């Protein structure tokens, strides 16, 4: 999962901020999400290496009413890539690999293997097709596969472009990096991870995952409907080094702090990891925050979503691990980082307004914009309106007023003017005007 989040802080940000994190305000924010079943999971924030806030809400096992706690372990999806890239840099330091090594040394059967370097696999410039984009992916992602079977899948998927010519996010490249690590160390990825990172750092809740096990305090993931709908489980042999890890908020914050404090790899290696090409380094991307930047990665697998960021100048770490969301998780990040930098926040309001069905019917129709290449179809059904963009699924809209509607999961707001036959879409700082056809 890749999404560059833009965070905003106070206009006058002091780098020497107080550690008086407003826990009461953050609790109020999280309480509203929990009460309205908008978010399940764990989030935490550190300043100067100390935990200043940690909170868990919702259920790890809804069927048995088992609550999430701050010790609950979640699938972290593509945050795994940051660990994999760190292990590759460790292998470079130990003269097991060179960034200039060609894929053909390990998997000559992959198209363009003689041109593709380890570095290009790390920064998604290999051109290898992303197998999770295959049309039939969801028909086989729950079945265990061997390394050989996955390599065959990657081989048959082909390539999208010549190596090094552009950026295109590819889980396939990181799956191959994990296999390459296994070849050079002659150990499993799980063993390498334990030996090089988790055991030295004391990360007792971080490991290469398997089938979800409640006895190990692992959470299931859910679609937040009524009732909650448990998600299917991807077999973790599929994402492997691209997304198979499990962890907790506290462990992930310690990992990223220790990474930036050069306790895992050298300062030189870290510098290479955070050197951006097309806004991506090695298993890490830049997170802009007012006049500074953080670094980290997002993740998504099944109904799990995650984010892990570290802001070196602020000495602030942030993590969010979710096993179910019907909210724009970026808003949680913004709230936490705003409170960490002495900025006030607004508490979400999920109270729905009552709008007459006749008024809703006036909004129904097809809307297009000269600013946007897709159309949006708006429908009224049983006293509620729904929207659907070209090529995407339908989503319900909640009335905030007679003419303002929101879809909190994606942070979307639609403002209608039936007299002018227009609809204004607001999302992530964008404002796009649509006209009814």
UniProtKB/TrEMBL annotation:
- Respond yes or no to whether keyword Hydrolase is given for this record: yes
Q: Keyword Hydrolase on this protein? A: yes
Q: Where is the signal peptide?
A: 1-18
**Which InterPro entries does the protein's record reference?**
AmpC-like (IPR050491), Beta-lactam-related (IPR001466), Beta-lactam/transpept-like (IPR012338)
Q: Name one Pfam family in it.
A: Beta-lactamase
Report the residue ranges that make up the Beta-lactamase-related domain in this protein.
39-327
Q: Which domain of life is it from?
A: Bacteria
Keywords from UniProt, A to Z, are: Hydrolase, Signal
Give GO MF terms, alphabetically: hydrolase activity
Kindly provide the name given to this protein in its UniProt entry: Class A beta-lactamase-related serine hydrolase
């Amino acid at each position: 999962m890749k999404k560059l989040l833009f965070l905003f802080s106070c206009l006058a940000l002091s780098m020497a901020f107080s550690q008086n994190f407003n826990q009461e305000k953050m609790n109020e924010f999280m309480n509203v999400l929990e009460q309205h079943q908008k978010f399940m999971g764990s989030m935490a924030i550190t300043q100067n290496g100390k935990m200043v806030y940690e909170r868990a809400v919702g259920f790890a096992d809804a069927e048995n009413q088992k609550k999430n706690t701050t010790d609950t372990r979640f699938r972290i999806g593509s945050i795994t890539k940051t660990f994999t890239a760190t292990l590759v840099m460790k292998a470079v330091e130990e003269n097991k690999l060179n960034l200039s090594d060609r894929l053909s040394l390990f998997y000559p059967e992959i198209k363009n293997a003689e041109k593709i370097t380890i570095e290009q696999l790390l920064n998604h410039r290999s051109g290898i097709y992303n197998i999770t984009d295959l049309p039939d992916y969801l028909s086989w992602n729950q079945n265990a596969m061997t390394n050989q079977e996955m390599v065959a899948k990657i081989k048959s998927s082909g390539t999208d472009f010549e190596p090094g010519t552009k950026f295109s996010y590819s889980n396939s490249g990181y799956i191959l990096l994990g296999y390459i690590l296994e070849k050079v160390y002659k150990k499993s990825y799980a063993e390498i991870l334990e030996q090089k990172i988790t055991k030295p750092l004391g990360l007792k809740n971080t490991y290469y995952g398997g089938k979800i096990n409640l006895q190990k305090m692992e959470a299931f993931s859910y679609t937040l409907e009524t009732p909650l709908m448990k998600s299917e489980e991807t077999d973790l042999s599929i994402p492997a080094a691209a997304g198979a890890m499990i962890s907790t908020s506290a462990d992930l914050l310690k990992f990223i702090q220790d990474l930036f404090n050069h306790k895992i790899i050298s300062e030189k290696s870290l510098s290479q990891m955070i050197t951006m090409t097309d806004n991506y380094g090695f298993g890490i991307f830049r997170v802009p925050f007012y006049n500074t930047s953080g670094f980290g990665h997002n993740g998504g697998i099944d109904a799990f979503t995650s984010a892990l960021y570290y802001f070196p100048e602020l000495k602030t770490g942030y993590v969010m691990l979710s096993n179910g969301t019907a909210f724009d998780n970026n808003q949680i990040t913004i709230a936490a980082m705003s409170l960490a930098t002495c900025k006030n926040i607004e508490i979400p309001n999920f109270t729905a307004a009552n709008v007459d069905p006749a008024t809703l019917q006036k909004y129904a129709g097809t809307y297009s914009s000269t600013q946007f290449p897709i159309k949006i179809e708006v429908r009224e059904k049983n006293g509620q309106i729904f929207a659907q963009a070209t090529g995407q699924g339908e989503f319900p809209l909640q009335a905030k007023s007679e003419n303002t509607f929101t879809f909190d999961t994606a942070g979307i707001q639609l403002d209608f003017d039936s007299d002018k036959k227009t609809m204004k879409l607001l999302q992530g700082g964008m404002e796009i005007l649509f006209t009814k056809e």
